[in-house]
Design goal:
The structure holds 2 protein chains of 2 kinds. In chain A, a hairpin with a 5-residue loop joins strand 5 and strand 6. By secondary structure, chain A is α+β, with helices and mostly antiparallel strands. By secondary structure, chain B is an alpha/beta fold. Chain B has 12 helices and 13 strands. In chain B, the strands form 3 sheets. In chain B, strands 4-10-9-8-7-5-6 form a 7-stranded mixed beta sheet, with helices on both faces. Chain B has a 4-stranded mixed beta sheet with strand order 1-2-3-13. Chain B has a two-stranded antiparallel sheet with strand order 11-12. The longest helix of chain B has 24 residues. Chain B is globular. The model of chain B has no long low-confidence stretch (mean pLDDT 97). Classes of the chains: A alpha+beta, B alpha/beta. At the A-B interface, helix 7, strand 8 and helix 8 of A face helix 1 of B.
Chain lengths: 230, 411
Amino acid sequence: MTEFPQERIVPWAAARSIFGATAVMGELDGMTQKLEPVLLSGDRISIGKNGLVFKQDSLLRAIKSGFSMPELFPMLMNPFSAIKAIITLKRISRFYDPNLNLRESLPVILRAGLETVTVYLNHHSRFNDMFSDFSDELITFNLAGSEPIGWLRRSTEGLFTAGSESAVGNPSVELTFLNKEIAFEGLLRGIDQLGATASGEMMIQGRLPLMDKIGYVSRIAQKEVPQPRL
Amino acid sequence: MNNLTQSDELFERARVVVPGGIYGHVSPAAGLPRHFPHFCDRAQGCGFVDVDGNEWIDFMCGFGAILHGYNHPEIEESVALQREKGSVFNQPSPVMVELAERLVSSIDFADWAVFAKNGSDLTTWAIRVARESTGSPLVIKAKGAYHGVDSWCDPGHGGRIPEDRASILEFEWNDLEALSVIMSQNEGDIAALILTPYHHAAFAPSELPDPGFWAEVEKLCQRYGILLVLDDVRCGGRLHGGGSHRYFGFTPDLAVYSKALGNGYAISACVGKESYRKASMEVFLTGSCWNDAVAMTAALKSLELSEREGVAEKVLAKGKELTEGLERVAEKFEKNLKMTGPPSMPYPWIEGDENLFEIQKFCQFCAEEGIYFHPHHNWFLGNAHDSESIEKAIHVAGRAFERMSEEERTS
């Protein structure tokens, strides 16, 4: 996992966050196409199966500012597919609007965030040895009084994956947000992890050192990887 | 459920002016934040009262700092007398000499002593003394062992650079073969092996040394010319009056004490063999308040009490009463509770509870009835614990296990 080019982590994490968001959007509406990214040569990343290819810098700019030009040639080769993907991309940003139905947005932005974090957990050289003491672990993310809204899993081989459907297995950690507003704020702008736990805004049960480490990696990822702007 | 209104209000104020509200090992996040109080008002003997007036029987003893009980009258009397004279001056007070003499006379291998405020001050200093003495850069420690807040050993993640730990090698506690390999592969480059008397990592059951562990460690250190540094910060005073090495039967080259040394007054000490006196003088050591005569007086009185009353033996016996009682009531409700580590510093571990949900629930139920059992850190017995407090704790624990069983049946 250390072979991953470190300079590509941020754009790749951003691309994976797009995939995470669209995966949940698809689960919610049954229509949205999953925009699975592919790492291409020459600092390029394709978003979705056909048509939409960005230079890494352009992709980050697109997320930060809401607009950036994809590469023309692939788009001309698959114009319908590319336009559909662009529309989907534009739709992602509305889930980051606090005025919308947060209960619906939360799984989307949580999954987007978790996909970002998995890239850091799996590929960032700084965190290679951080989880060597852990084996097969499951962390579930919940809203108080409701079903889990997302999960993160570490396999015995050390690979992290994220999901939004119901997780199978006993969790090593359960993280529960007191309400959707706190969850939304925390996912978008970060949370005072010490204060929020003490006040009950966020409750953590289980193997705290695991969550402590994942929380640290998450905060770094959140700082470095842009989120969609409205 | 305890009322924690004042505690919460105070915490909200703290959040504004203190990052995270409360930080470090006493951060609410590290314990049971919605069940333990965030702030304490006062304490006496083996109990404390939180800011909401809830009364607790305490089995953490200020995370080990309180050995003789909170607010011990003899210690407080001595401290009051010294406080009348003053605490920090331009020069050390005579009590520094008395305290060093006391440590040197009561710790069998010690020929000298130095003082600071915190355990970390002197664990870090001790490995520098080892480097000065040997001229070697590397230090070996046990994986997962805590030796303080400095970047070579702290359990946090932030503000660290790879160089911080470039000279630190690790082995699994009790794995003598791995230790031997590390030493032979780095022969001539290792300054120190720093270890706690037994392995007392947080969030995991404590591990005692295997039979023959310490003898082999001593032998290896001698063979490779490595200083054996004992981090007795947490255990000191609770296993043996003459230092925890006596409990396990070995002799370190340097040893560091803090926590219980001053019975709640901030002080740490490092003692060493004559052969390291010169090296110790080459490694700069100072702090504006490190010659605090009040803390030194407390330490002197605390050591006197320990010797006079055989406190280490007493807290071991009290711990035995507690741990055996807890294991007994757990068994009654088919919970396989193992109180690991020495009985004066037991760490609770429920077999099969890998994700810690059960121990957290157990400690939560005990907290609701005023028993302060920590789910993630070893507990501490003190000499102020008596049969009444221990029996009450066992009784409450029994009810907690009963509630857990009921919950399991109904869920």
